[in-house]
C-alpha cells in the first residue's frame, strides 16, 4: 500500500491516459550472476476509468511491471508514466494507491486505529466513509492479528482509498475472501470505477477477470501477448465445448467424429471439444440417445492456457 501525502500542485497535472508504458525493459541478475529479462519491450496504454485485468503465468513479468507502475523500481530502458507523470511523482501526488497481498499492517492495532493512523497522512480523508466502502466498519474494534486473510485484504483496500486515488492497483485483491465478501468488494470497485477511478488488477481467479474487467491484458515472457475484452479473447480460440449425458459406448463413437478434438468424461456427462459445434449437435441428436445437451463457448481459462507458454521467464 502506498500512503504518501498528496501535493495539490502535482494533483492538477493531467493526461488523456491513466498509464502509458512504452518499450519497457527490466533486467535482473540472479544470485548466480546470470542476467535475465523480466520485462521485454512491453507496450501498454490504460485509459482513464478502465477496469483492466492484468493476467499471465507465474514469471510472466506481472509483478515487475506493477512495481514499475508504483515507482518501486525503474525500467532499464523505455518509459513509464501515470497521468503524464513519472510514477514516483504520481504516487507523491496521491493519485496512485495499491492493495498488495501481504505486509503493511501492524498486528496489535485495531482496524479503526489502523485506518485513523494512516488517514492522518491524508488531510480531509473521511475515515468512516472509507471503512464503509471497504466493508470493514463492523470490524473496527478487532485487532488486525485477529482478522482473517480476507478481512485483512478488505482493510488494505480501505487504506488504499484514503488518498482518493485516481489509479488503483490491485494484486490478488480477493485472496482469502469468501464468495459474499468477494462480490461486495467488486461491487465497491465498480462504483469507484463508475466515478472515474482507473483500476488495474492481477488475479489468478479467471472468473473475476471474466466478470469484472472491461479489458483483459495477457502477458507472457515479459510482453503483451493478448489485449481485449474477455469475450474477444475467448472468441480468438476456434470451436466450442459440447457436453451431454450419453452412454460410454455412444460417447466413444462420437469422439471418433472428425470434428471432435477431444472427449473428457466427468461423472455421467461427456465433454467434447469440437471445431464445428453445429455438426456435432446433429450427430448427437440424430445418431445417439444423448440427453441434456449443452453448448458452451471456450472459457477465459482455456484462452489463457492457449495464449501463454505456461513456462514464463520470471
UniProtKB/TrEMBL annotation:
Its main location: membrane. SUPFAM superfamilies: P-loop containing nucleoside triphosphate hydrolases. Residues 19-246 form the ABC transporter domain. PROSITE patterns: ABC_TRANSPORTER_1 (PS00211), ABC_TRANSPORTER_2 (PS50893). Keywords: Antibiotic resistance, ATP-binding, Nucleotide-binding, Transport. Transmembrane segments: none annotated. It is a peripheral membrane protein. It comes from the Bacteria. GO terms for molecular function: ATP binding. The keyword Transport applies. It is found in: Cell membrane. This is ABC transporter ATP-binding protein. It comes from Streptomyces cremeus.
Amino acid at each position: 500500500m502506498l500512503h504518501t501525502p498528496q501535493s495539490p500542485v502535482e494533483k492538477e497535472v493531467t493526461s488523456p491516459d491513466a498509464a502509458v508504458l512504452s518499450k519497457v525493459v527490466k533486467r535482473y541478475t540472479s544470485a548466480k550472476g546470470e542476467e535475465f529479462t523480466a520485462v521485454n519491450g512491453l507496450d501498454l496504454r490504460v485509459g482513464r476509468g478502465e477496469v483492466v485485468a492484468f493476467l499471465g503465468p507465474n514469471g510472466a513479468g506481472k509483478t515487475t511491471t506493477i512495481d514499475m507502475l508504483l515507482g518501486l523500481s525503474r525500467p532499464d530502458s523505455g518509459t513509464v508514466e501515470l497521468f503524464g507523470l513519472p510514477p514516483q511523482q504520481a504516487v507523491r501526488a496521491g493519485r496512485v494507491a495499491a492493495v498488495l497481498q501481504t505486509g503493511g499492517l501492524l498486528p496489535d492495532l485495531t482496524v479503526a486505529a489502523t485506518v485513523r493512523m494512516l488517514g492522518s497522512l491524508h488531510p480531509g480523508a473521511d475515515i468512516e466513509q472509507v471503512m464503509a466502502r471497504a466493508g470493514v466498519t463492523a470490524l473496527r474494534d478487532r485487532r488486525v492479528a485477529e482478522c482473517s486473510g480476507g478481512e485483512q485484504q478488505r482493510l488494505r483496500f480501505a487504506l488504499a482509498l484514503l488518498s482518493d486515488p485516481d489509479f488503483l492497483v490491485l494484486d490478488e485483491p480477493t485472496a482469502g475472501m469468501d464468495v459474499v465478501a468477494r462480490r461486495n468488494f467488486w461491487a465497491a470497485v465498480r462504483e469507484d470505477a463508475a466515478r472515474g477511478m482507473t483500476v488495474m488488477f492481477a488475479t489468478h481467479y479467471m472468473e473475476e477477470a471474466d466478470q469484472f474487467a472491461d479489458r483483459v491484458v495477457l502477458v507472457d515472457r515479459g510482453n503483451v501477448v493478448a489485449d481485449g475484452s474477455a469475450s474477444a479473447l475467448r472468441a480468438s480460440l476456434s470451436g466450442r465445448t459440447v457436453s451431454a449425458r450419453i452412454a460410454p459406448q455412444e460417447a466413444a463413437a462420437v469422439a471418433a467424429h472428425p470434428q471432435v478434438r477431444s472427449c473428457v468424461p466427468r461423472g455421467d456427462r461427456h465433454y467434447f471439444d469440437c471445431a464445428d459445434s453445429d455438426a456435432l449437435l446433429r450427430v448427437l441428436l440424430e445418431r445417439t440417445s444423448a440427453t441434456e445437451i449443452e453448448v458452451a463457448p471456450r472459457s477465459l481459462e482455456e484462452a489463457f492456457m492457449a495464449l501463454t507458454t505456461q513456462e514464463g521467464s520470471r
